[in-house]
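> forwarded from #structure-qc
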């Protein structure tokens, strides 16, 4: 889900002609990046350090609100993509670089839990969080957001061809959509892996290989990552139009259409892209109190805050993800231009952990050879 955030941040920076900084530490409670152990997570410290992936983003006013409510300032230590950040925490487990880790999702969750990275803590306000996101009964992690990996389509292409866009995984196999879809490599890309898991959830462990054989025969194109797929190969994106891309179907996110509207100049009355709502896979991102955290009290306060309405309602236009708190209000940009995916397929984290490598190897042998 996080590549959409990275795309939005890059576009905004280019539009404004500025360098995007991941927070500059100050005494007013704003975030600081590059926090070190010596910068203030010790006993009695008024600083709490949040370790995250590079796509984490939050408004300064929200961080100030946290400081005003709790007395703690937040320092943010960004550590690459979600997988790289998690690997660093596994290497330093028991002596963590921060107090809270944010960004482990359901594709990697069991790995984090099996390595004992988190100390159990039942965050205040958890009763207001959607029950289907609360997958860990021991409360070692707290659900923070959800995002849906889905096929996006170029509305103009399908209107010009007088062809209805696909709606489901099964539709993608139809001859009408031959040579139209581009997806990311499941071995190297988060949305690529999510799309593979979506087909497994939809077709079953006994049926996904046959599905991918048919999808390959129908001309699916595989590229390394989301940036190439969305901004170079997909004809519906702003980048794709400049690149004269010729694939009107791409694996991206349900939140991608609002991004296309937000950064267009002038903003269109409707999104130029749509979502095939029957092709989605639900990702959930979690945060947890790191085992050995030097500021446990501050870490617990931050987890409580992250599932409060102030933080939850700030996320959609900063990280382009959905709140998990049931009464959080979405911005108009999301409700007007986005798609609400009610019951997307997913796969249990423990099943992903047990089978992920085998599924990826099978997919590679079927699709890339």
């Amino acid at each position: 889900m996080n590549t959409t955030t990275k795309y939005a941040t890059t576009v905004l920076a280019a539009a404004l002609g500025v360098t995007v900084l991941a927070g500059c530490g100050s005494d007013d409670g704003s975030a600081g990046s590059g926090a070190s152990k010596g910068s203030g997570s010790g006993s009695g410290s008024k600083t709490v350090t949040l370790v995250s992936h590079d796509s984490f983003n939050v408004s300064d006013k929200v961080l100030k609100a946290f400081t005003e409510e709790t007395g703690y300032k937040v320092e943010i230590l960004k550590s690459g993509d979600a997988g790289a950040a998690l690997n660093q925490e596994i290497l330093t487990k028991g002596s963590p670089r921060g107090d809270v880790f944010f960004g482990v999702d359901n594709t990697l969750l069991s790995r984090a839990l099996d390595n004992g990275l988190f100390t159990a803590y039942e965050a205040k306000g958890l009763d207001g969080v959607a029950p289907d996101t609360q997958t860990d009964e021991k409360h070692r992690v707290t659900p923070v957001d959800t995002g849906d990996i889905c096929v996006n389509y170029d509305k103009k292409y399908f209107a010009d061809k007088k062809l209805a866009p696909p709606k489901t995984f099964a539709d993608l196999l139809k001859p009408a959509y031959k040579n139209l879809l581009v997806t990311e490599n499941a071995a190297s890309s988060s949305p690529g892996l999510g799309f593979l898991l979506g087909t497994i959830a939809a077709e079953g462990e006994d049926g996904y290989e046959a599905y991918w054989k048919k999808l390959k025969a129908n001309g699916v194109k595989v590229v390394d990552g989301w940036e190439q797929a969305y901004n170079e190969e997909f004809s519906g994106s702003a980048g794709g139009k400049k690149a004269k891309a010729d694939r009107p179907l791409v694996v991206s996110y349900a939140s991608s259409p609002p991004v296309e509207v937000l950064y267009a100049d002038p903003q269109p009355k409707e999104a130029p892209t749509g979502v095939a709502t029957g092709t989605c896979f639900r990702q959930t991102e979690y945060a947890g109190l790191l085992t050995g955290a030097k500021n446990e009290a501050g870490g617990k306060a931050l987890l409580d805050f992250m599932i409060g309405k102030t933080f939850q309602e700030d996320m959609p236009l900063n990280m382009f993800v959905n709140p998990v708190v049931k009464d959080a209000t979405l911005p108009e940009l999301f409700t007007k231009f986005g798609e609400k995916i009610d019951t997307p397929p997913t796969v249990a984290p423990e099943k992903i952990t047990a089978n992920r490598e085998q599924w990826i190897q099978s997919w590679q042998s079927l699709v890339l050879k």
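QC bot note: The longest strand covers residues 273-290. The longest helix spans residues 349-367.
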